[in-house]
Amino acid sequence: MKTLRHHRGFTLIEVMVALTIVAIALGAGLRAAGVLSDNAQRLSDVVAAQWCAENALTGLRISRTFPGVGDADISCEQLGRSYPGQLQTRPTPNPNFRRVDAVIFDAEGRQLLTLSTVLPRP
């Protein structure tokens, strides 16, 4: 009389399917970690750019001068990085006011932030 022995365990196909699932999950986890890292850097750049823009606009307010219409290049150092920018001064319907936009860029020239204010004639 022959005895049938049943082997317990996984087949090669089952192991390969499990490894594929684990590989896909790890790949998705690495991608998510990369995206979080990129978002953290972007947030840091935007916050520093906002500080630069606020400093430039506050400097105009403190100087109590009425800015002329036109563009002026600015540069700002925040968190150990340099942020180039531009102050864009435009007329308003009321000649006693000027609209000033502080536009801040990253090192590659991509626009990070635009902050606007209206300055009165002193």
Structure overview:
With 122 residues, the protein is an alpha+beta fold. It contains one helix and four strands, in the order αββββ. The N and C termini lie far apart (110 Å).
Are there runs of 5+ residues with pLDDT below 50, and where?
none
Number of strands: 4
**Continuous helix count:** 1
Structural class: alpha+beta
Largest pleated sheet = 4 strands, antiparallel
What is the terminal-to-terminal distance? Answer: 110 Å
Question: Shape, please?
Answer: rod-shaped
Backbone CA Rg: 29 Å
Query: For the residues shown, what is the average pLDDT?
Result: 90
**Biggest sheet strand line-up:** 1-2-3-4
* Helix residue percentage: 40-55%
Order of helices and strands: HEEEE
Tell me the fraction of residues in β-strands, as a range.
25-35%
How is this fold's topology laid out?
Blueprint lengths: L11 H52 L6 E9 L2 E11 L5 E9 L5 E10 L2
Antiparallel strand pairs: 1-2, 2-3, 3-4
Q: Could you write a compact summary of the structure shown?
A:
With 122 residues, this protein is of the alpha+beta class. The protein has 1 helix and 4 strands. The radius of gyration is 29 Å and the shape is rod-shaped.
